[in-house]
């Protein structure tokens, strides 16, 4: 039929990205709908920017949250959505036999957002904390289920000077912080990690490919022995010919902290824009090396 567009929409994990691509191969495009960005959230939020930030960091950006007034109802909505939609669909879709293992892994990932990890490290965590033995392959499979259902997303390490990817370890972020907080019963609320997660999501919403930057330094110690040190840049963001290096720093109370955040950015060896994002910077400014500090 001419002059007709057909849109196929689903909200749960039974109609995942891979399914759509398989069913409509060569006949359509995928449009990934993210939760609300902070700017979108604030466009309909009636309070102050600080209050909005606190709400967004706690309850996330799923649109139905905007229509719920009380904190108790928001918490109940997020918990029910997690259990009745995400977990139930993942278990049913993939015929997961040990739901308890899958949920334990989800709890661990919720606790370590923005931290480098891999299946081997997660398996060791299960062994030490839960006294359970779970294979690396099982953990990797469960993580793939979470990514396919758009619960979490990953950032792979990229060697900036070597211009190559480092497969492991990687960082995981929740696509919505409200769901992550609901998973942990709103107990583990570190604003530093939450801010980093929000920045990651914002970059993905804006269409960037996001990696974790690694700069390797080979130095000699006092005894003349060669040592190898790796510095990290939180986000290496690429879109077409554009690239930005971004550091997430909740606060920079003194010059020593500023120098710490700047060090890896100054060693990239290129002239792409470098940005340090803080929560309470008074105003954006550039330093002598061309780095931007923004809030």
Overall description:
It is globular, with a radius of gyration of 21 Å. It is an alpha/beta fold and about 300 residues long. The protein has a nine-stranded mixed sheet. Strand 8 and strand 9 (about 290-295) form a beta hairpin. It starts with 16 loop residues before the first helix and ends with a strand. It is about 40% helix and about 20% strand. It has helices spanning about 15-25, 40-45, 50-60, 70-95, 100-110, 120-130, 135-150, 175-185, 190-205, 255-265, and strands at about 115, 150-160, 165-175, 210-220, 225-240, 240-250, 275, 285, 290-295.
Concise structural overview:
This protein has ten helices and nine strands.
Query: Roughly how many Å is the radius of gyration?
Result: 21 Å
User: Can you tell me the overall shape?
Assistant: globular
Work out the number of β strands.
9
- Kindly report the spatial arrangement of strands forming the biggest sheet: 1-3-2-4-5-6-7-9-8
For the largest beta-sheet, the strand count, sense and barrel status come to: 9 strands, mixed
Oligomeric state of shown chains: single chain
As a percent range, the share of strand residues is 15-25%
- Low-confidence spans: pLDDT under 50, at least 5 residues? none
Explain the layout of strands and helices.
Elements: H1 17-23, H2 38-43, H3 49-59, H4 71-94, H5 99-111, E1 116-117, H6 119-130, H7 136-148, E2 152-159, E3 164-174, H8 177-183, H9 191-205, E4 209-220, E5 226-239, E6 242-248, H10 255-266, E7 273-277, E8 285-286, E9 291-294
């Amino acid at each position: 039929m001419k002059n007709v567009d057909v849109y196929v929409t689903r909200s749960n994990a039974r109609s995942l990205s891979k399914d759509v691509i398989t069913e409509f191969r060569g006949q359509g495009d995928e449009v990934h709908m993210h939760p609300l960005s902070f700017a979108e959230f604030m466009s309909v939020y009636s309070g102050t920017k600080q209050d909005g930030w606190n709400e967004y960091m706690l309850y996330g950006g799923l649109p139905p949250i905007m229509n719920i007034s009380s904190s108790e109802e928001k918490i109940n909505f997020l918990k029910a959505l997690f259990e009745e939609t995400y977990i139930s669909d993942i278990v049913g879709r993939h015929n997961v036999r040990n739901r308890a293992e899958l949920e334990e892994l989800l709890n661990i990932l919720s606790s370590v957002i923005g931290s480098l990890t891999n299946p081997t490290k997660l398996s060791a965590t299960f062994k030490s904390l839960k006294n359970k033995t779970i294979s690396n392959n099982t953990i990797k499979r469960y993580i793939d289920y979470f990514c396919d259902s758009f619960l979490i997303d990953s950032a792979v390490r990229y060697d900036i000077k070597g211009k190559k990817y480092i497969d492991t370890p990687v960082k995981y972020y929740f696509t919505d912080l409200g769901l992550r907080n609901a998973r942990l019963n709103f107990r583990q609320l570190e604003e530093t990690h939450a801010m980093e997660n929000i920045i990651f999501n914002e970059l993905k919403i804006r269409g960037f490919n996001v990696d974790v930057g690694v700069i390797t330094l080979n130095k000699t110690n006092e005894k003349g022995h060669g040592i190898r040190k790796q510095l990290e840049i939180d986000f290496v963001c690429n879109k077409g010919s554009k690239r930005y290096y971004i550091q997430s720093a909740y606060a920079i109370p003194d010059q020593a902290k500023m120098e710490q955040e700047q060090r890896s950015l100054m060693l990239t060896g290129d002239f792409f824009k470098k940005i340090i994002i803080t929560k309470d910077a008074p105003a954006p400014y550039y330093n002598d090396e061309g780095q931007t500090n923004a809030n």
